[in-house]
Every structure is written in structure tokens, then in C-alpha cells.
Amino acid sequence: EPIRVVVTGAAGQIAYSLLYSIAKGDVFGKDQPIILVLLDIPPMLPVLDGVVMELQDCALPLLREVIPTDEVEVGFKDIDAAILVGSMPRKEGMERKDLLKANVAIFKTQGAALDKYAKKTVKQLSSNLQRIFREEKSKSFWYKGHHVSRQVLVVGNPANTNCLIASKSAPSIPKENFSCLTRLDHNRASSQVAIRCGVSSDKVKNVIIWGNHSSTQYPDVHHAKVDLHGAEMGVYEAVKDEAWLRGDFISTVQLRGAAVIKSRKLSSAMSAAKAICDHMRDIWFGTKEGEFISMGVYAAGNSYGVPEDLIYSFPVQIKNKTWKIVDGLPINDFSRAKMDATAAELVEERDTALDFLSQ
Ligand SMILES: NC(=O)c1ccc[n+]([C@@H]2O[C@H](COP(=O)([O-])OP(=O)(O)OC[C@H]3O[C@@H](n4cnc5c(N)ncnc54)[C@H](O)[C@@H]3O)[C@@H](O)[C@H]2O)c1
Ligand SMILES: O=C(O)CC[C@H](O)C(=O)O
Fold first, then answer.
1. Whose CA is nearest to atom 1 of ligand 2?
2. Selected residue with higher pLDDT from 307 and 90
3. Residue 312 in contact with residue 346, Cβ under 8 Å?
4. Ligand 1 atom closest to Cα of residue 47
5. Is 286 a known ligand-binding residue?
6. What share of the chain is helix, strand, coil (3-state, %, to 5)?
7. For ligand 2, is residue 160 a contact (CB within 6 Å)?
8. Is the pLDDT of residue 140 over 80?
9. What is each CA distance from 299 to 6, 223, 302, 305, in whole angstroms?
10. Cα dihedral across residues 311, 329, 332, 225: positive or negative
11. Closest ligand 1 atom to 16 CA
């Protein structure tokens, strides 16, 4: 059976890199047929037509159908995965707060639309599932048995707060089904360490991005390992330069998005698309044994004292399409201060967003 995947902002630059990877099986598997739903705003429909033509012209065997639309009820109907990219990127000179105001309303609307249209009705389930559902009469069964596969990844910035707002606007979808993209930051951090050590990036594992996808994020390598020509060791031991690890390394990762904008005059797109693929593929197929990755998830119940009602980036492990925060990693004072600073920014962003949406 094909799965239905919607990408919003499908006429934009991230989508242009992303759609090909999804359609050729890099994310949901090499034998998983796909229906791609491309959602954008009305003025972009002519551009979407061109994207549809190009996808057809790729002649990809897994791609069963491409549906361009500007209507959320079409876009979100019965989807298995939603990748919410559509929103305005920051341009040079723009502040983060400008972006919050421009974008957060989109995610309120889209969360509500997901709640309304993505919900499968009991009627659409097989008769066997309908019988079990009637017998169980439990909402949690409904969630566990069926909704669990419906994953919503928020990419549009400010990604954490947009994700929180989308999730709050979709009360029938479990909070666990929402996540936001900090995998790009994770990949940036792994890559910086790999370059410094002169190894390929797959030799670095378990870096952590804590907090917000912003310049307050904390890229933490205290628990990361590097395979240095056959010998696995901690990153501090391998790099042997604490000043760099606590200074330029952190600021390079924190400010990388801004550096790309300054240089390209456009927000990162190829690397963002690659990170989206990594994030979704790990949700679908799970993380490797003994490894964790970073993603923004609902903070409730975390063991790190992060305020609960936030989407905060944590180290997570994923199995059976269910993520779990890696608990109990030792946190030193240096890390604690940085984790708290990024949490404080997220609290402020959340409050500004809620305030703004209530006006
Ligand atoms: N989380 C991350 O790591 C990360 C990385 C890079 C970019 N981003 C963010 O991703 C977003 C998109 O970036 P881009 O470079 O592709 O931008 P873009 O301007 O090239 O494309 C955005 C697309 O979204 C569409 N859009 C706007 N409002 C929409 C709506 N309500 N519904 C559907 N579509 C809508 C636009 O018409 C446009 O086609 C930005 O917010 C950017 O900051 C996040
Ligand atoms: O607007 C920014 O500073 C960041 C843009 C994007 O999210 C990125 O990380 O490349």
C-alpha cells in the first residue's frame, strides 16, 4: 500500500531538494510506494505544476501519485506523515521575532487543519479494527493502534515554537507525534568534529543539540564518541582542545544558519533537506543500537529539569516509530548553564507566540 506524505511549502527551495529524496525511497524505504501531496499557497500553484512535471520526469518507480494543492483539507487528508516546511525563511537583516510573528499563525492554522482532516474515522478502519476499537472503547488504543504512525515534523522557523503551537492546535493528535527539526544542527556539529579530527562524519556519534533551533542552542559533545582510525574515544580526548570545543565549535554550530544566509543570501536548503530525510528515516526505521540523535520533542517528563510545556531538542532513541529521551546523562555546570539559557529563550518565545495568537 502506498503511504501518503504531505510536504508544505512544496514550491520552495527546501522542498526542491527534499521531494526527490523522498520520492526515490531514501526516507520511507526502497520498497515503500508513496503518494506525495504538495501543499503551498494559491500564488505558488503554477510553480507547483512545474515541480509536479519534474517529479513525473524523474520516472521514479515508487512514486505512485503527486497531488498539488492549496487546500489544507486535501493536503492533510489521511496522511501518514506531514513535513511542515511552508513558511517564510529569515532574510539578512531580519530578526527572529519578525519571523515568529510572520510564521506562527500558519502553524496554528495547520495544526487545527491536521486535527480536523488528518483524523481517520472509525469507518475507514478495517472491520476487525472497528470491532477491537468498539471493544476497547479507549482513546489510548486508538492512539497506539492507529494514530501512532501519523508523524508531523515541523521545519519552518522558529521551528520549536511553531511545533508547539501546531501540537496545541491539534488536541486529538498525541503530542508524541510532533517533532521539530534540529537534526541539521546535529549534523553540523558532527561534521565540525569530524573535520577537526580528520575523519569522515559517520565516525562521529552521539553529539547532542539541546534546546532551541536558534543561536542559543547548545551543541554538546561531552557524551559524543569518535572512531579515530579504529579506536573509539570521547570527543574531548580525540580533539584535545577544550578551548575550541567550548568556544568556536559551539558558536560555529549556533551561527551556521546565519552564516549560510549571509553567504548565499538564501536560507540553507540542501543541508536542511538532507537533515529532514535523516530525521524522518530515523523515526520510520529507528536509531542505531547504542546511538542517539537530536530532535525537538515535547519536554514533558524529561529528567533534565527542562520546563515541561516546550518543544525542546533532546538526545533521543527511536524504536517502533516511538522516540524516547535518553535520560540520566551526567550534566556539568558548563552544560547546565547553556541548557537553561536556551530553555529560557523557548519559554519567552512560547509566551510571545501565545500572546500574539490571542490578540
Ligand atoms: N529547522 C531547520 O533546521 C530549518 C533549516 C532551514 C530552513 N528552515 C525554515 O524552513 C522554512 C522554509 O524555508 P525555504 O528556504 O524552503 O523557504 P522558501 O521561501 O524557499 O519556501 C517556503 C515556501 O512556503 C510556502 N508557504 C508560505 N506560507 C505557506 C502556507 N501557509 N502553507 C503552505 N505553504 C506556504 C511559500 O509559498 C514557499 O513556496 C523557513 O521558515 C526556514 O527558516 C528551517
Ligand atoms: O534564520 C536562521 O538564522 C537559520 C536558518 C535555518 O534554520 C538554518 O539553520 O540554516
1. 90
2. 307
3. yes
4. 39
5. no
6. 50, 20, 35
7. no
8. no
9. 26, 20, 6, 9
10. negative
11. 16
Q: How far is CA 158 from CA 10, 162, 207, 209, in A?
A: 18, 6, 22, 16
Query: Does the beta carbon of 188 sit less than 6 angstroms from any atom of ligand 2?
Result: no
Tens of pLDDT, residue by residue over 126-135, are 555 555 555 5
3-class secondary structure, 231: strand
- pLDDT at residue 94 in the model: 85
Q: Is the dihedral of CA 307, 86, 3, 18 positive or negative?
A: negative
CB distance 145 to 330 below 8 Å: no
State the ligand closest to the CA atom of 91. 2
Determine the residue of 14, 90, 180, 215 to mutate for testing ligand 2's pocket, defined as the one with the most ligand atoms within 8 A of the Cβ atom.
90
Nearest residue CA, atom 9 of ligand 2?
257
Amino acid (one-letter) located at 211: G
Q: Could you confirm whether 146 is annotated as catalytic?
A: no
Q: How far apart are CA 109 and CA 107, in angstroms?
A: 5
Q: Which of 240, 232, 243, 252 has its CA nearest to residue 189?
A: 252
Cα 236 to middle of ligand 2, angstroms? 27
Contact 54, 124 (CB under 8 A): no
The two beta strands, 225-228 and 218-220, are unpaired
Q: Which residue from 37, 38, 39, 28 is spatially nearest to 1, judged by alpha carbons?
A: 28
* Catalytic-labelled residue, pool 213, 223, 229, 279: 213
* Residues 6+ positions from 180 with CB-CB distance below 8 Å: 153, 154, 155, 159, 160, 162, 163, 213, 295, 296, 297, 311, 313
The pLDDT of 140-153, averaged and rounded, is: 55
Q: Which amino acid is at 70?
A: D
One-letter amino acid identity for 262? Answer: K
pLDDT tens digits along 261-280: 999 999 999 999 999 999 99
Distance CA 132, CA 145 (A): 10
Ligand 1 close to Cβ of residue 100 (< 6 A):
no
Q: Whose CA is nearest to atom 43 of ligand 1?
A: 89
Q: How much is the ipTM here? A: 0.99
Distance CA 343, CA 349 (A): 10
Q: How far is the CA of 325 from the centre of ligand 2 (A)?
A: 24
pLDDT of 148 strictly over 60? no
